[in-house]
Fold this protein.
Amino acid sequence: MNARINSKDWLLLSAYVDGQLTPGERAKLEKQLNERQDLQEELRSLKRMRALLRRLPPKPVPHNFTLTTLMARQAQRRSWWLPVLSFSSLTATLLLVASFLIKLPSAAMPAMMAPIPMAAAEADRAYESAVEAEQPPIIILWGRPEALYSFNGMGGGDGLPIGGAPQPALDASREAVPLTEPELEMVPPPAEKEADSPQEPVEMIPDEEPPPEIAMPAATATALPPEEPLSGSGPILGVRPASERGEMTLRQPLPIMVVEAEEMPANRLSLLQVALAAFALISGLTAFMLWKKSRP
Amino acid sequence: MDEPTLVSAAQQGDLDAFNRLVLEHQQVAYTVAYGILADDAASDDATQNAFIAAYRNIKRFRGGSFRAWLLRIVANTCYDELRRRKRRPTTALEPLDEDEDEIESPAWLADGSNDPQDVVEQSELNRAVQRCLQHLPDEFRMVVIMVDLQGFDYQEAAEAIGKPLGTVKSRLARARLRLRDCLQKVWELLPAEFRFEIEEIA
């Protein structure tokens, strides 16, 4: 383009050859054309190129593009995917939002939990009823949750009879124990003191940290003494012998199992939400691509 | 039957009526597709797919220029193909020069000793124009194909690309400027008689 021709002049010339200028613009441009040689040359080259392009014959079609009956049927059938996918995506999105709002999996948590917490709840109820009656307690040692998972031969008798021990201590022990390492647990009173007051509740987990020098060989922790006869009229499923009280026992990874039992519903909730989100995203994107592809 | 009647019948599901519309507009649809894609097979596929899409969506046509509505579908189909090519680039069979253009060297462009009278053929002129068109941005190319090659008016071109009239005017002017510069060498190598003929038309 000539240095004196700016883009505005070229825009006017382009519209001028197509007759797209208003009468005022056209008169003004024609006046300039009479005065400026460069504008005339640009107009001539523009008209020449336009004529050259319009003189080109069209490229002949390779064949007719008419639709067959089969093509028409396929074209109509394909359009059903769009509403189906759109509806699916919308439904999944609403379900996802609802799962966040009403916390449905949390409400259903007890039904989804493993039998371990259920057994603990049963033991708690037995303990409460025994305390209210103020009678020689009916010792029902279902076994603490860890009993079901212990794998060193401790079974359910690890020295923590739920029916006779204060429940807060049990709860404190669950929360205070680290998650990964087995814990050495010490019962402070000596054996002879325990013999003097056998009905006295045993403090299972002291608040302070146990002295590190106290350690028990594994054989002591795992060996089970013979059971002693018990008095009472109710069912006795298990009790810890008095000689064993006050001893330090090795606890196996109870906290891990408890934590797993509590986190399981949350994991399921997350899985459900992730699955819903993925489904909503995939179906929505597919519907959008179909819509974009089929748009006129 | 006139076009509105055919369109109305096609909207009722009359495939024969739609096919008559196809026969009426397939030349311009294919030309626009070839102008954008510059590839025989791809233009063929794009044109066919565009007619299938038009049949699927013909009930959404609300009047106006049927040709502009159809060409909008053709253009969108071609742009989808261009995007697919960018995602999955193919290797050209012909060698490329520094600007990554295919080296094809038509004799009447490369060797001045040949007699232009013998080598100027319509197909080669078409190829030269196609090469220049391919150097334009997609949105410019579409407008110049419709207006300068197919003879659309600005309003119909605006409907086809879904943009305002001022956008058509601006894009066309800029496309013409680039195309004029690109075709300058071609023009100078054309035979005098041919140039004179063009000047007469212009």
Remarks:
- The CA atoms of residues 33 and 43 of chain B lie 5 Å apart.
- Chain B touches chain A through 57 residues (CB under 8 Å).
- DSSP finds eleven helices and no strands in chain B.
- Confidence is low (pLDDT under 50) at residues 103-119 of chain B.
